[in-house]
Amino acid sequence: MLFGKEHVDRYQETDGEEGHDWQGTTVLLLTTTGRKSGLERTTPLIYRTHGDAYAIVASNGGATDHPLWYKNLVAEPEVGLQVKGDRFRARARTASPEEKARLWPAFTATWPSYDEYQTKTDRDIPVVVLDRIA
Predict the structure, then answer these.
(1) What is the Cα–Cα distance from 23 to 63, expressed in whole angstroms?
(2) Which reactions appear under catalytic activity for this entry (predicted)?
(3) If we measure between CA atoms, which residue out of 123, 128, 121, 72 comes closest to residue 96?
(4) Do 57 and 130 form a contact (C-beta atoms < 8 A)?
(5) Res. 131: pLDDT tops 80
(6) Taking residues 71-85, what's their average pLDDT?
(7) 5-132: what fold?
(8) Average pLDDT over residues 49-64
(9) Contacts (Cβ under 8 Å, ≥6 apart) of 68
(10) Within a 10 A sphere around the Cβ of 95, how many other Cβ atoms?
(11) What is the pLDDT of residue 107?
């Protein structure tokens, strides 16, 4: 399965039955509001749980700049999430260095490329914590 629009469409149509489990890891759908366009965009991202919250990595494959979705959630931290059939609003924040240190090994255990991505860039790849809004 492709990791992009097709992935998002199948995930949404099947409540995550197709697309949640992906290449040995798990995926959620993040919907951000464009900081320039004002349009909503949905991105499939590998996640891990962090207590009652979820965490994602803004790796951008090790590119020199942050992914657009990360820039969008920094500008507007209220986001939409879908984890399997559960759709809800969440507040995004960049993990503290201590939180990142605890979370990073959980990410690299199922997606070892994250370590490689970090070596390809001078920027510190952020980990984002997504807290459900009641």
Answers:
(1) 22
(2) oxidized coenzyme F420-(gamma-L-Glu)(n) + a quinol + H(+) = reduced coenzyme F420-(gamma-L-Glu)(n) + a quinone
(3) 128
(4) no
(5) yes
(6) 98
(7) Pnp Oxidase; Chain A (2.30.110)
(8) 96
(9) 34, 41
(10) 20
(11) 96
Which bin fits 38, alpha (ψ -120 to 50), beta or left (φ > 0)? Answer: left
Hey, what amino acid is at 118? Answer: Q
Strand pairing of 21-22 and 53-57? unpaired
Contact 50, 94 (CB under 8 A): no
Give yes or no for a contact between 26 and 69, defined as CB atoms under 8 angstroms apart.
no
Candidates 45, 57, 55, 9; CA nearest to 18 is: 9
Token pair in block for residue 18: 């197709």
Q: What is the pLDDT of residue 4?
A: 81
Q: What is the residue extent of each domain of the chain? A: 5-132
Q: Which of 94, 83, 68 lies closest to 132 in space, CA to CA?
A: 83
CA 19 vs. chain centroid, Å, equals: 14
CB 63 within 8 A of CB 26: no
Q: Which residues pair with 82 in a beta bridge?
A: 29, 87
CA gap 107, 65 in Å, rounded: 20
In which band, very low, low, confident or very high, does the pLDDT at 1 lie, cut at 50, 70 and 90? Answer: very low
